[in-house]
Amino acid sequence: MSQVTLNERGHKDAGLMQVAEQVLSKMAAETELFAAPVPALSILEEALVAFRNAATEAYYRDTRAILIRNQKRAELAYVLKELAKYVDTIANADPTIILAAGYAVRKSKTSYGGVVPKVERLIARPEEVGSGRVKLKTQRWRGARMYQYQFRIKGQNVDWSTQLCSKSSCIIDGLESFREYEFRVSYIGIDPTPNYSDIISSYVL
């Protein structure tokens, strides 16, 4: 199987900018393949512009400017890595889709192949009153490329709403205050078949 690779340490500043520009332009042109990137492409663009400006400011070797450049480089690399997890999930080991996103392809390890394990523990914590937000948290699994959270109002026979997150914790917002919701989560790995946790319930404040 193939998956995304990003060796940011192997790129000089100009090279990392070029990778980011390529990913940004290619994914923006392939909206049917990449309908809802996580993080959003606007976040990648902001990180790229910030790094480019910081690199320009550091040209004359000012110590503070160099430190800022290094910080903005790390932030851009982080966004590219998080976006790579989303591309991995969408590609489902198809190298042509990975290349369509502007990333390079490498052979993946098979240690996390097969159906993902069932999530054994999911916690829901409502945020402040009137926020319409709930913070969900589950156990981290090293083989997870994404965490697929689902939610719906309890007691209503409706389809689940889905939110993909790159980390084991996730904020669900836009919920109705003082309503009880159901939540569940699945790891998304090399095999994208979900294996959902038991359903839990929580009121939204």
Task: Give a brief description.
34% of the residues lie in helices and 23% in strands. Helix 2 (41-57) runs antiparallel to helix 3.
Topology of this structure?
Blueprint: E1 2-5, H1 13-29, H2 41-57, H3 63-91, H4 95-100, E2 104-107, E3 122-126, E4 134-138, E5 146-153, E6 161-165, E7 169-172, E8 180-188, E9 200-203
Antiparallel strand pairs: 1-2, 3-4, 4-7, 5-6, 5-8, 8-9
Helix pairs in contact: 1-2, 1-3, 2-3
InterPro entries: FN3_dom
Organism: Sphingobacterium athyrii
Protein name: Fibronectin type-III domain-containing protein
Largest sheet: 4 strands, antiparallel
SSE succession = EHHHHEEEEEEEE
Compute the number of helices. Answer: 4
Termini separation comes to: 44 Å
Q: Major sheet: order of its strands?
A: 6-5-8-9
Average pLDDT reading: 90
Count of beta strands = 9
Radius of gyration: 19 Å
Range of helix content: 25-40%
Instruction: Outline the low-pLDDT stretches.
Output: none
Give the total of domains: 2
Structural class: alpha+beta
Shape: globular
Determine the strand fraction and express it as a percent band: 15-25%
Protein name: Fibronectin type-III domain-containing protein
InterPro entries: FN3_dom (IPR003961)
Features of the shown structure:
single chain; 205 residues; alpha+beta; Immunoglobulin-like; 2 domains; four-stranded antiparallel sheet; three-stranded antiparallel sheet; 4 helices; 9 strands; 34% helix; globular
